[in-house]
């Protein structure tokens, strides 16, 4: 079959610019597996006779069956009759290409799935889960083996991507894959404060994440501009601090839905409630939480970061975060700590007095005083946490379970310092999706090697992964999907695949296929590589 | 009412960053009218009792009634979205109770059109689009000379209406409006990526909401040939990305033209030649120049082959069809970015040039273009050309519009108009040029007449176009890529030259982008953090 295609294309005199800029691959996996061997032998996959077969005695039958249903639907959709009908209308009468083809192995009737560890249907993906799997498609059939249910989910995604349309049939080549992630923390960050994003957009985003083997949804829930999280203990926060108290809030049921939708896809949901800066919206209902800013010894009508000098601030945070830690089951919580503006604290005479009374000699010290209260609280709640890099840089005492989220321009140096101090690092500096350039605009994300800093092997092991960040100042529900996809796919491959998978030119044809695959699955991905077409 | 709102907001201690970056205006018009006076007096508009009233004896009743239906639906949709507000659950006193500014319910807009018109009228070059709109205690009246002016006025009227608490409101307003430039275009490339018809229709909606009046349809290019020709169906059969699902059927084209026409938008097709034609070669390689390396054909094909009569015969047949399909008086014949290296490599071309005393490749290009323009003259069609055709010295009639697009556009515009030719400007409105952020300030702060030239030269600049090249744009991101960024171009082309303050425009565009969202246009945020209700 492949030889035939090559022979045909050699007959055509081509003008260089005709057709797509980059020809898509067929049945290549994104992110690229660690080890993969393929032959030209192939099966035909017919959705209506194909089935997934799980172990009869598995402890998490719902998790696995739900995944089977999702992936069966994806395969069936790729076989849509409309698509084949369109192909038929090309008016070319094909001989069924597999007739008389020596490479044809027959119809693939099932994928056998094995999970060796015990599991339960309420299992939560967590830090350090084993996501390895092996996948074999050969003359004997197809088998997927994983230690954990999460590894099985990754393998099912891979299996679904190996199947491609050839003329009017779905085809899968004989393939052997041994796969595992390079990094255990593979995140996508989404800001729902600068613009509110409806739940269906978040669910689509989770679908896109599953298609790229991301495993952490970092939900930047609140910021200066709005407070869309509807709290049970302080409902006034969103009643007054959201862009709209009804239509621009996440109800408890919305949050639960997102968490469950993510969980069954093996994606953790880590909420961020940024403090003590980026909290203006909290002040819409509770101005007393924020520092009163002064000009000429008078309150000037503005409110600054949280007021670290009042016990009531910590009581409030205690009550809210106790609720939040109960709502979000993940073992980690992102407490923010970035970009605290000291000028308002400096202007406020009560803060000055407080610092003097408590022997705090710098505003970094004051910030540390605040953060220390928050981390003590989370320790008490038995929750671990991520912090933005400033918290580490400013010298807050952090336990070794803390993940330091490195985001600023000098990220590699910071990562060096973080890991030198024995802390875990999560890297985002080169994956800011709000940084735009003309064109397909993912090469810069792809050509970023997160371990490209001076450090020992042990330091590098402390880098757990990274996150692509979608800040939404200029993004709303209408452009968020094509802004994220397929650009975040670059980050996904850097975080999953081997370090040696770093050739942009080699990745282009695979991403061309993958972007079309995502389009077919309902993800509004933009074009990755210039002129082209998805059929 | 306005005083009340101001008083309320003064009571709230605000932290600077809370809420949207830019607060939207209410009932402000985009693009900004030439003259506008507003008072705080207002009517309530109730969709189910409001209606448009046209002249009983108008010659184009369908054009006008269709517009009435469209705009009534937009008002009704806005009204329906009030339900969202009502869900806030706050009990308001009806805002107009005891309000001295309330003028009552607005029952109708009376529309007058003084020129004669017909239902099959086509918008054309130089149409009068002026209108006046008056809303006062006596009621509301829209007067225009032409049906096209009436359409512009209806758009303005619909934008004056805004939500205030749980009612639709329109302030007493007097507007006298007319476009600064007569040619206000949006260019869309459907070759680099195919765009389905529904996206083109949505784009035309967006254009109407911004008073654009020319849809420049860049139908073909190197990458694909989606136009399904009657005389040469093989062009799309082999040259489209897919012969069935990625082509524009004759019925699709007719639908686009009609959808545009009733909105007062001209559709100007572009079939770019002699470069940007690789896709033609998928079915007709003989049209293109065979490129040589080391005295051998190297397997690549270049621009059209200007040395063969058969090339011109083919173009003649195709363009005769196209001029029949697209009713506009203008046709865009391209002529940009012709690569001379393939011509240089081909020995037959060299012989041809020598036989015909053509001494340069610019001269050869001119030979080609001259044939094409002679053909269009014969077909009684006028044309636009990309600036290279002028720069390279092709003889052009004074009806030609020279489309200036390259970086040094202002100098070119100066030269074009100095030569007495019409100019259309796009150099600073390339929508594929991306930067972080909301990314329309650069489009807004471009003044198209900012070149050295006499008043008479400047009058020759008929307008401009925002260009959406689609190398990196498909059906999933084209709408937010175009909108609201192209709104900046729309305002530069419609409003007075003095309307040039980015800061002053932002609150209006904040409102307008939300208005477009409500009307189904997937516009991205114009000004940073914010929201639309």
From TrEMBL, chain A:
InterPro entries: Beta_hexosaminidase_sua/sub, GH, Glyco_hydro_20_cat, Hex-like_dom2, HEX_eukaryotic_N. One of its GO terms (biological process) is glycosaminoglycan metabolic process. Pfam families: Glyco_hydro_20 (PF00728), Glycohydro_20b2 (PF14845). It comes from the Eukaryota. It catalyses: Hydrolysis of terminal non-reducing N-acetyl-D-hexosamine residues in N-acetyl-beta-D-hexosaminides. Its EC number is 3.2.1.52. GO terms for cellular component: lysosome; membrane. Keywords: Disulfide bond, Glycoprotein, Glycosidase, Hydrolase, Signal. Residues 183-498 form the Glycoside hydrolase family 20 catalytic domain. Residues 1-17 form the signal peptide. GO terms for molecular function: beta-N-acetylhexosaminidase activity. Residues 29-162 form the Beta-hexosaminidase eukaryotic type N-terminal domain. Disulfide bonds join 60-119, 293-344, 516-534. Belongs to the glycosyl hydrolase 20 family. This is Beta-hexosaminidase. It comes from Zophobas morio.
TrEMBL record, chain B:
Keywords: Disulfide bond, Glycoprotein, Glycosidase, Hydrolase, Signal. The active site is at 337 (proton donor). GO terms for cellular component: lysosome; membrane. Its EC number is 3.2.1.52. It is an enzyme of class 3 (hydrolase). Disulfide bonds join 60-117, 291-342, 514-532. Residues 181-496 form the Glycoside hydrolase family 20 catalytic domain. GO terms for molecular function: beta-N-acetylhexosaminidase activity. GO terms for biological process: carbohydrate metabolic process; ganglioside catabolic process; glycosaminoglycan metabolic process. Residues 29-160 form the Beta-hexosaminidase eukaryotic type N-terminal domain. Residues 1-17 form the signal peptide. CDD domains: GH20_HexA_HexB-like. The keyword Signal applies. It catalyses: Hydrolysis of terminal non-reducing N-acetyl-D-hexosamine residues in N-acetyl-beta-D-hexosaminides. Belongs to the glycosyl hydrolase 20 family. This is Beta-hexosaminidase. It comes from Zophobas morio. The lineage of its organism: Eukaryota, Metazoa, Ecdysozoa, Arthropoda, Hexapoda.
């Amino acid at each position: 079959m492949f030889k035939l295609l090559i022979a045909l294309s050699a007959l055509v005199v081509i003008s260089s610019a005709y057709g797509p800029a980059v020809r898509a691959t067929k049945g290549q996996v994104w992110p690229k597996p660690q080890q993969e061997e393929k032959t030209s032998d192939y099966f035909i996959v017919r959705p209506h006779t194909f089935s997934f077969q799980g172990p009869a005695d598995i402890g998490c039958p719902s998790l696995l069956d739900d995944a089977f249903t999702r992936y069966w639907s994806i395969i069936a959709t790729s076989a849509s009759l409309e698509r084949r009908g369109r192909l038929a209308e090309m008016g070319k009468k094909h001989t069924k290409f597999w007739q008389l083809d020596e490479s044809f192995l027959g119809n693939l009737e099932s994928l056998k799935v094995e999970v060796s560890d015990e599991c339960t249907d309420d299992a939560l993906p967590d830090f350090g889960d084993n996501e390895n799997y092996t996948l074999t498609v050969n003359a004997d059939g197809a088998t997927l083996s994983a230690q954990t249910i999460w590894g099985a989910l990754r393998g099912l995604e891979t299996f679904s991507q190996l199947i491609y349309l050839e003329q009017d049939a779905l085809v899968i080549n004989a393939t052997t894959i041994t796969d595992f992630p390079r990094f255990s923390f593979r995140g996508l960050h989404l800001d729902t404060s600068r613009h509110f994003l409806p739940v269906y957009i978040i669910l689509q985003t989770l679908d896109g994440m599953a298609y790229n083997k991301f495993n952490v949804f970092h939900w930047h829930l609140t910021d200066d501009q709005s407070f869309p999280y509807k709290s049970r203990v302080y409902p006034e926060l969103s009643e007054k601090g959201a862009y709209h108290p009804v239509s621009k809030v996440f109800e408890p049921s919305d949050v639960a839905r997102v968490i469950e939708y993510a969980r069954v896809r093996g994606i953790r949901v880590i909420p961020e409630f940024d403090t003590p800066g980026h909290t203006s919206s909290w002040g819409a209902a509770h101005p007393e939480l924020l520092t009163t800013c002064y000009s000429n010894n008078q309150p000037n009508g503005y409110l600054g970061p949280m007021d670290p000098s009042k016990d009531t601030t910590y009581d409030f945070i205690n009550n809210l975060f106790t609720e939040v830690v109960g709502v979000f089951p993940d073992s980690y919580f992102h407490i923010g700590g970035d970009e605290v503006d000291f000028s308002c604290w400096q202007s406020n005479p009560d803060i000055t007095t407080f610092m003097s009374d408590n022997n705090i000699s710098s505003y970094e010290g004051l910030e540390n005083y605040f953060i220390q209260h928050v981390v003590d609280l989370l320790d008490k709640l038995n929750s671990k946490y991520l912090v933005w890099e400033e918290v580490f840089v400013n010298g807050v005492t952090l336990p070794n379970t803390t993940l330091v989220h490195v985001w600023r321009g000098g990220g590699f140096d910071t990562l060096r310092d973080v890991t030198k101090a024995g802390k875990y690092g999560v890297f985002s500096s080169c994956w800011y999706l709000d940084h735009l350039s003309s064109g397909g605009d993912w090469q810069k994300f792809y050509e970023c090697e997160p371990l490209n800093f001076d450090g020992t092997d042990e330091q590098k092991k402390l880098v757990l992964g990274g996150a692509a960040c979608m800040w939404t100042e200029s993004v709303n529900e209408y452009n968020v999907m094509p802004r994220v996809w397929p650009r975040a796919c670059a980050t996904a491959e850097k975080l999953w695949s081997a370090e040696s998978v770093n050739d942009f030119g080699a990745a282009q044809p695979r991403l061309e296929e993958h972007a079309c695959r995502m389009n077919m699955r309902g993800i509004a991905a933009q074009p990755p590589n210039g002129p082209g077409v998805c059929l």
